[in-house]
Amino acid sequence: MTDLNAKPELDFPEGPAPEQLDIVDIVVGDGAEATAGATVDVHYLGVEYDTGEEFDSSWNRGQSINFPLGSLIAGWQQGIPGMKVGGRRKLTVPAHLAYGPAGSGHRLSGKTLIFVIDLLGVS
């Protein structure tokens, strides 16, 4: 059973990184549904696909984060709508939907990223 009060753990991915956004619901929520224009309150974990190394986690900071979806990377803008509060979703985001090709100026550019997102609220 998945404990939504605990930081998620990820198994190391197998095979080549996907070229398109991959969306997997780990837990389907039963609350309000996130829409494209929503502001979301989330807990999340981010790891690099190739190395499995964690690069960011709201869990480590001890508090969730509130974001307007429109200000986030394309992978989140496409991968969170339809998710319901109380859910946990894994997004595998190829570089072109994350921080762009290698050399784009962000430390994660050129990398496929995996996020596990817990949707705590929408507004």
TrEMBL record:
| Family matches, as SUPFAM superfamilies | FKBP-like (SSF54534)
Top-level taxon: Bacteria
Q: Which reaction does it catalyse?
A: [protein]-peptidylproline (omega=180) = [protein]-peptidylproline (omega=0)
* GO MF, one annotated term: peptidyl-prolyl cis-trans isomerase activity
Q: Does the keyword Isomerase apply?
A: yes
InterPro entries, A to Z: PPIase_dom_sf (IPR046357), PPIase_FKBP_dom (IPR001179)
Q: From which source organism is this entry? A: Cryobacterium lactosi
Query: What protein family does this chain belong to?
Result: Belongs to the FKBP-type PPIase family.
Q: What is this protein called?
A: Peptidyl-prolyl cis-trans isomerase
Query: What sequence ranges are listed for the domain PPIase FKBP-type?
Result: 37-123
* Keywords assigned by UniProt, alphabetized: Isomerase, Rotamase
Q: Which PANTHER family match?
A: 39 KDA FK506-BINDING NUCLEAR PROTEIN, FKBP-TYPE PEPTIDYL-PROLYL CIS-TRANS ISOMERASE FKPA
Any idea of its EC number?
A: 5.2.1.8
Classification of source organism: Bacteria, Bacillati, Actinomycetota, Actinomycetes, Micrococcales
